[in-house]
Amino acid sequence: MRTIRDHPVRFGELAGPLVHGATIFDWQLVSTQELATAVDYGFEDLVADGAIPYAPVGVDTTIHRYPTFGDTVSVAVTPTRVGDSSLELVYDVVDADGEPFSTARMTHVTIAPDGGALPLPDGVRDRLRADHASRDVNPGPADNDTPRENGAAGDDHPTFEDAFRIHSPHIEGSELAYFEEYPRFAAVALESFLADAGLDPAEIAGEKQPFRLRAWHWEFTSTVEFDSTLSVTTDVRSVTDEAIRVDHTFRTDGEIRIEGVTEYGCFDREGDPTTYTDEMVAAFEP
Q1: How far apart are CA 21 and CA 214, in angstroms?
Q2: Residue 250 three-state SS
Q3: Quick check: 91 and 106 in contact, CB under 8 A?
Q4: CATH of the domain at 124
Q5: What is the helix, strand, coil percentage profile of the chain, to 5?
């Protein structure tokens, strides 16, 4: 199902010359709402009943190249697994010629007011299964490992942490943190680490755009509520010319809310993948 059609990239969606990584999350959220409306299981009614609609529990994404000014974006959503209460969707973000910008696979559940997962109504399940298609896609970082405990023996790469108070404008109507805010928090934590290391990305970038989201595998354990303090721990695991690979852990009240594996890549100003310079990755080395 084509949920976003020929959307021109706008200034507010950019970070520098390229689309902000969180914008990819935003397009996925918009597309989920469009699909929900099409199968008569819309966000509005679920929120009115006190439910949390289509909450992500697992996300795998690869960015093949970044959109920039002059590009138009379309998003197609395909149901690939329809369970009793869970729904797996594949999101294809493509350019005007149908060439891919990004591919994502996400598993959603709708959370009832009591905290359990709402079963999909029979008619909704039937409509989704009518649109079901098998897709052989495997987005996200290669060889996804379960994030290890911070400071695992033999690992001398740095670990850093930042914390954020969840207030407006980071919340939605149900008083939970917005889905697309989490990569923003991770980006701010990364920028703070670089600043503490005396590294200004703007000074070393030149024609390159370093420290951009490239691939991620995130698992969502529970929601992040209004007026909580969200800590973001970034545990660097490996550094190559092509990617900085980290474990991400998001906590409130000492409890893990989100954890996963994230790769930050380097891209050129046209959005195509390129390599890091030694100066760019020096702060991440043991």
Answers
A1: 9
A2: strand
A3: yes
A4: 3.10.129.10
A5: 20, 40, 35
Tokens of 33: 């709402």
Residues 162 and 130 in one domain: no
Distance between CA atoms of 24 and 26, rounded to whole angstroms? Answer: 5
Helix 21-38 vs helix 181-196: crossing angle, to nearest 10: 170
Count of CB atoms situated within 10 Å of the CB of 52: 19
User: Mean of the per-residue pLDDT values for the chain?
Assistant: 92
Contact criterion met (CB below 8 Å) for 228 and 253: yes
226 contacts 175 by C-beta, under 8 angstroms: yes
pLDDT tens-digit readout, 178-195: 777 898 899 999 999 999
Q: Are residues 187 and 66 in the same domain?
A: no
pLDDT band at 244 (very low <50, low <70, confident <90, very high): very high
Measured CA to CA, the distance from residue 286 to residue 284 in angstroms comes to 7
CA distance 152 to 163: 22
Owner of token pair 């900085």? 244
Q: What is the CA radius of gyration of the chain?
A: 19
Looking at the structure of the chain, the number of domains it has is 2
Where among 139, 166, 194 does a domain terminate? 139
Give Dmax over CA atoms of the chain in angstroms.
57
d(CA 27, CA 128) in angstroms, rounded, equals 20
Amino acid (1-letter code) at residue 83: G
| Boundary-marking domain end, from 139, 172, 193 | 139
Q: Please name the amino acid found at residue 225.
A: E
Structure confidence at residue 153 as a pLDDT band (50, 70, 90):
very low
Residues 117 and 183 in one domain: no
Measure the CA–CA gap between 24 and 187, rounded to whole angstroms: 14
Q: What does the alpha-carbon distance between residue 95 and residue 51 come to, in Å, rounded to a whole number? A: 34
